[in-house]
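new request in #modeling-help
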Amino acid sequence: MSDSADVIIIGAGVQGVSLAFHLAQRGLKPLVLEKKFIASGATGRSSGLVRMHYDVRQDTELAWVSFQYFRNWKEMVGGSCGFTRTGFVQLVAPSDTEKLKANVAMQRQTGVPVLLIDADDLKRLAPTFAADDVKLAAYEPESGYAMPSDTANALMNAARLKGARLIQDCAVAGIMTNGGRVSGLQTSQGVFSAPVIVNAAGAWAGRINEMAGLDLPYDTWRHDTMFVARPPQVGPSHPTVIDFANEMYFRPEGNLTLVGLEDGNPLGESPDNDADHARPGFVERGIERICRRIPIMENGGLHSAHGGYDGITPDQHPMLGAAGPDGFYLDCGFSGTGFKTAPAVGLCMSELILDGKARTVDISIYSPHRFAEGQQITGDHAYSSAWH
Ligand SMILES: Cc1cc2nc3c(=O)[nH]c(=O)nc-3n(C[C@H](O)[C@H](O)[C@H](O)COP(=O)(O)OP(=O)(O)OC[C@H]3O[C@@H](n4cnc5c(N)ncnc54)[C@H](O)[C@@H]3O)c2cc1C
């Protein structure tokens, strides 16, 4: 006899466990199957930036709803997500200043606390930053970063208290259907049955889609990051920053600064490749880039570097919704930006599965069918910068 559940979620990254948390809140007993261990994929490697600046309204809405969880974690979830408020600065190329203004206006309509600041303001916030190229920037005083592994563990622990289960070391190898409807999964630990199956397998989700007979445009995205020991002159902390002008982001963590680059992130590699080490040349490029924005970082030292893999789609937005056999849902393709939205995405997916429609945020634009329908997502005031 096979083990059974109301809903089976494939993958115990932050997205899978967020969905388990919200389904359990609604009284279901979901089962999460994970081939390695919780947060062993992109989640455990994530830089954990928590901010609301996007050029697509629904992205901002998902991040804003999620932000209520991050800053009220103990009350809304329990345990800790390690949220640290640093303030967040979005820097853009001077040619994108008008787009920045339009996007900030959209974010304000959504309720996000965000200001426009100039180079002098930036210098007051972060005296060691080079600001000569800055015309206008967006500043979110309440944003910052959280700890992705802690976040995932807290969500799963809270889900477990309400009856959810997690089975680790359990690799899904096949999807079973009956009369055009999902009926269960073949795994390394035997057969599990459920009327609803959700693909939250991150960079591996393309393989799961194939098991379900789906032919969707889905790729893998590799991203390296490094920690630099900050010289004391930079001070005890600094804001979290996305710096489109230098194709980079960075944030503090204790006396270290985490740096990631927007360029040089290869597509199409096997997500099973070594991600414990950064790729050759990454550290040199990262150091050159952070020294452009914080010149005194020349006196810093490398602490560590590693990589990670996420799933990516052609418009760099997730695939959320039903596709393939009845009862099969996609919750994947977060394209390097799915940590900060996970609490709200899980909530919206639970509404979609249980009520037929997401109420909290309209997630219909993320339909997995949009590529076949020629409806790729793009912001009204999209920046030229994108992951590549
Ligand atoms: C280096 C890096 C930095 C990032 N920084 C940020 C950031 O600052 N802010 C932000 O918002 N986002 C960031 N992201 C993106 C974010 O981390 C991801 O979008 C998010 O973690 C994706 O979560 P997930 O649950 O979809 O995937 P994952 O965390 O990858 O989880 C998928 C899980 O599925 C499991 N799995 C796969 N195949 C199977 C199978 N056959 N059977 C069972 N289990 C399976 C995997 O083992 C894995 O644990 C970053 C990503 C990377 C790689």
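bot summary: Residues 10-16, 33-36, 40-43, 45-49, 171-172, 200-204, 223, 225, 308, 310, 332, 334, 336-340 surround flavin-adenine dinucleotide (CB under 6 Å).
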